[in-house]
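Running co-folding for iron/sulfur cluster.
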Amino acid sequence: MEPRFACTACGKCCHGLLPLTLTDAVAHAVRFPLALVWTVVRSNAKSYDLATRLGTSVRLPNRKTVAVLIQPSAYLPNHFPCPALQPDNLCGIHSDKPSRCRTMPFYPYREEKDQADLLVPRKGWECDVSAEAPVVYRNHAILDRTNFDRERAELLEQAPVMRTYADYVLKYMPWIVNDLAKMAAAPAGGKLVTSLSSFLTATRRTDARELAAAQAPLMQAMAERTRTDPALADLHKNYAGWAKEMERLAQRP
Ligand code: SF4
Ligand code: SF4
């Protein structure tokens, strides 16, 4: 049977971490609290070769090499709605929404031939996969590939920048290699988060001050929203620390 899919705009997937292209992260810096999210892809994974092209390769202390994706992301607790999600569950920035949202449910960090299981809605999601929904994927190929191709092209274009950032982090924060090794060894993998300020410093962006000025109040607001929940203590610590970093960066001459 051919996979069918239509979005019913239930808003259920508009919660938690949202990976962005670098272009989208910059364009939405006044809206999303941003961080860099690192994910290890082991050498036996289907998407390993693609991950080495979109991310970077890291040699671990045990001499194994893994691919590491570094995704600029809207950094939100899993159950927090996207700031652009309206009370009616529609996207408040529909005509301007990020590539990641446009390409859903496909995911250009995976090879195109390996997208079929993304068309099975996760528990609680209300995507229409009935016989009335349009066929969107046939013979391991995406039928309307405009958004997928655009997002993939942006990811390939930004890859050298992400590699520059990875080199910086691994040089100045060498303990991160050990964290990556732990993630590579853990059955469930894991994610590592680094700050936008480290990215802005490493890549010497000329718009660093403007981006920091946009981020400072968002980080402060998130620090406040996560202040009293013990389950969010680690995120709260990040938001509070990054708010100060962003304030300092925004005021730099
Ligand atoms: S930008 Fe719009 S579509 Fe994307 S996660 Fe937010 S509310 Fe959902
Ligand atoms: S969960 Fe499915 S139906 Fe709901 S907004 Fe996301 S893609 Fe659309």
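Result summary
Residues 53 and 100 are 18 Å apart (CA to CA).
The chain has a mean pLDDT of 96.
Job closed.
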